[in-house]
Design a protein that fits this description.
The protein is of the alpha+beta class. The chain is built from 13 helices and 11 strands. Helix 2 runs parallel beside helix 3 and helix 10 crosses helix 13. The longest helix is centred in the first third of the chain and has 46 residues. The N terminus is likely disordered.
Length: about 500
C-alpha cells in the first residue's frame, strides 16, 4: 500500500478514537481532581462528613462525566465525522473529474462555518480544475492530430526528400519524396536504422565535421550553426546520386540530439557503388545557434491574425515588443537612440526567429555613464547606420502590429522626435507593461522589469541590451495575457481602457 494512502487510512480510523481518548483523559482528570478534593475535605472536616462528601462528590463526578460524554458525542457527530467525510469526499473529487457530489451529499461543518465554506469552494475548484484539465487535454490532442495532418500535407507536397533521425541514426520522420529517392520502400521506416536504406559513412563524416566546426565569433548571437552539403549514393534499385544538406537537431540545452537530411536528385550521374564517397562534405554557416526560430504556426489555418481594431481579441492580435538603448535620458535635450530591438508576439508566444536588432549611430558622443549601463561604445556604432535608415526599417517591421514596451512613453519619445526627419509615422496602438502590471497587481507596488520577472517567476538575461530587455518584456507580456483574461480584459479596447485608468491613478499618486 502506498505510504500516503496508508496515512490517510490511519487518519480515518484514529481521528475519532483520538477524540474519544482526549475526552476520556479529561474525564479521568476531572474524577481524579474531585476525588483528591474529597479526600482533602474529609481530612479537614472529619469522618462525620464522609456520607455527605461521598453523596455530593459522587454526584458531581457523575454529572461532570455525563457532560463530558455528551460533549464528546457532540464533537464526534458535529466535527470529527464531518471532517472525515469531507476528507473522503475531497479524495474522491481529486481522483476523478466525473465525481461531483451535489450540495446535499456534502457533509456540513456547522461549527466551523468559514472552514465549511472554504471546503465547498475547494471541492468546486477541484472539480472545475479536473474538468478543465480533461477538456484542455482533449483539445490539445485534437490540435496535435490536426497539426500532424497539416505537417503531413506540407511534407507530402515538398519537392525535396526529408529524413529526420535521432543520435542513433533511427528514422523519426520521412516523406514520400525521400522514400522514392532512396528507393527503399521495404527498409525505410519509422524507428528503423537509416543504414538499412543508405550508406552512413558520408553522414557520419559530415556529422563529425559539424561537431568539430567552429563558427565565426559573434558577441551578440554566439557561434553559428553550420550546415553540411554532401553527396550520397542509394543502396537499392537503380544506382543514383543524391545531393544532401545535413544539419544538427539540438535539445533545449543545445546538445546534439539528431539531424535532418534534405535530399534532391544530383545533377551528375551516380558513381559505381564500389568507389569511395563521391565528394567530401562541405561545411557552411547557417543561422545563429542561440536563435530558435519559429518557422511555422499551424494555428493560423483556423485562427487567422486579427486586424488591429479596438474590438479584436488580444489573443489573436500581432504584437511587437520593443526596447531602445540611448545616449541618455533626455530626448528633448539631444539624447539619441544607439540601439533598437523588437520581438514579434503572435497567438500568445514570442517568435524567437522574428526579431529586429540594430545598432544606431547617434551622430553624437555616447557618455561613459550610459556605456556603463548598456555596454555600447562609440566604436561599436561608428559604422552603424543612422536613425534615418534604421527607423524606416523598424517601422516596416512593426507594420500592422500593436506596440508593447516597458515604460513605453520613454522609448516612444525618442522615436516620435525623429519620425518627421525619417519620413515615418508611428500610429500603432501602444500597450505599456508598467500600466498593465499596475492593473493586475497593486498600483503602489514595484513595477520594474526585474520586479515583474521575479513576480512572474521568469529568468531574465542580457539586461540593459535592447534585444535582451525586449525579450524579457515579451515574456512578461505573454504571461500577462492569461492574467488579463482572468480579470475580464479580453480585447484591445479593454487593455487600453485599463491602461488609461492606471495612468490616471499613477499620476494622482505622484502628486503626494
Amino acid at each position: 500500500m502506498p505510504h500516503a494512502q496508508k496515512l490517510r487510512n490511519d487518519a480515518s480510523t484514529t481521528l475519532r478514537r483520538r477524540v474519544w481518548v482526549l475526552f476520556s483523559l479529561a474525564g479521568l482528570a476531572v474524577t481524579g481532581v474531585i476525588a483528591a478534593s474529597l479526600l482533602l475535605a474529609l481530612r479537614t472536616i472529619g469522618p462525620q462528613a464522609a456520607a455527605a462528601l461521598l453523596l455530593y462528590g459522587g454526584g458531581a463526578i457523575f454529572v461532570l462525566v455525563l457532560l463530558l460524554a455528551l460533549a464528546w458525542q457532540a464533537v464526534d457527530e458535529k466535527l470529527a465525522r464531518p471532517v472525515l467525510q469531507w476528507a473522503r469526499l475531497l479524495q474522491v473529487v481529486a481522483a476523478s473529474a466525473d465525481a461531483h457530489p451535489s450540495p446535499s451529499d456534502r457533509p456540513s461543518l456547522a461549527w466551523l462555518n468559514p472552514l465549511d465554506a472554504a471546503l465547498h469552494d475547494v471541492a468546486e475548484a477541484l472539480h472545475r480544475a479536473r474538468t478543465e484539465q480533461d477538456a484542455q487535454l482533449a483539445a490539445a490532442t485534437q490540435a496535435a492530430s490536426r497539426r500532424q495532418l497539416q505537417l503531413e500535407a506540407v511534407l507530402r507536397d515538398l519537392n525535396v526528400g526529408v529524413v529526420v533521425c535521432n543520435a542513433g541514426h533511427d528514422v523519426l520522420l520521412y516523406n514520400q519524396q525521400a522514400l522514392q529517392m532512396l528507393q527503399a520502400p521495404i527498409t525505410l521506416g519509422l524507428g528503423r536504422p537509416l543504414q538499412d536504406s543508405l550508406d552512413l559513412d558520408p553522414v557520419r563524416q559530415a556529422l563529425d565535421l559539424l561537431d568539430a566546426w567552429q563558427g565565426e565569433p559573434d558577441a551578440r548571437h554566439g557561434p553559428s550553426e553550420p550546415i553540411a552539403e554532401l553527396r550520397l549514393q542509394t543502396q537499392h534499385g537503380t544506382p543514383s546520386a543524391l545531393d544532401a544538406r545535413l544539419s544538427r537537431v539540438r535539445d533545449l540545452e543545445a546538445r546534439p540530439a539528431g539531424y535532418v537530411l534534405t535530399l534532391t536528385p544530383a545533377a551528375t550521374p551516380a558513381a559505381p557503388r564500389t568507389e569511395a564517397p563521391i565528394q567530401a562534405p562541405r561545411i557552411s554557416a547557417a543561422t545563429p545557434m542561440s536563435a530558435r526560430p519559429d518557422f511555422y504556426d499551424f494555428d493560423l489555418f483556423s485562427q487567422p491574425v486579427s486586424p488591429v481594431q479596438a474590438g479584436s481579441l488580444l489573443r489573436n492580435l500581432p504584437f511587437v515588443v520593443f526596447d531602445t538603448e540611448t545616449t541618455g535620458l533626455e530626448p528633448s535635450n539631444g539624447d539619441r537612440i544607439v540601439q533598437i530591438a523588437g520581438v514579434r508576439v503572435l497567438h500568445g508566444r514570442a517568435l524567437a526567429g522574428e526579431s529586429f536588432d540594430q545598432l544606431v549611430n547617434p551622430q553624437r558622443p555616447i557618455p561613459a555613464r550610459s556605456t556603463a549601463i548598456h555596454g555600447i561604445t562609440e566604436a561599436m556604432v561608428a559604422d552603424a547606420p543612422d536613425i534615418t535608415t534604421v527607423l524606416p526599417a523598424f517601422t516596416a517591421f512593426t507594420r500592422g502590429s500593436v506596440l508593447v514596451a516597458h515604460n513605453a512613453a520613454f522609448d516612444l519619445k525618442f522615436i516620435t522626435l525623429q519620425q518627421d526627419r525619417c519620413g515615418v509615422n508611428f500610429d500603432n496602438p501602444v500597450l505599456d507593461t508598467v500600466l498593465l502590471s499596475a492593473f493586475l497587481f497593486d498600483p503602489s507596488a514595484q513595477h520594474t522589469l526585474d520586479a515583474l520577472c521575479a513576480r512572474l517567476n521568469l529568468e531574465i538575461s542580457d539586461r540593459h541590451t535592447a534585444l535582451g530587455d525586449a525579450q524579457a518584456t515579451a515574456a512578461v507580456f505573454t504571461r500577462m495575457l492569461d492574467l488579463l483574461e482572468a480579470r475580464g480584459v479580453h480585447t484591445l479596447a479593454d487593455a487600453l481602457a485599463v491602461s488609461a485608468r492606471m495612468h490616471a491613478i499613477r499620476r494622482s499618486q505622484a502628486r503626494y
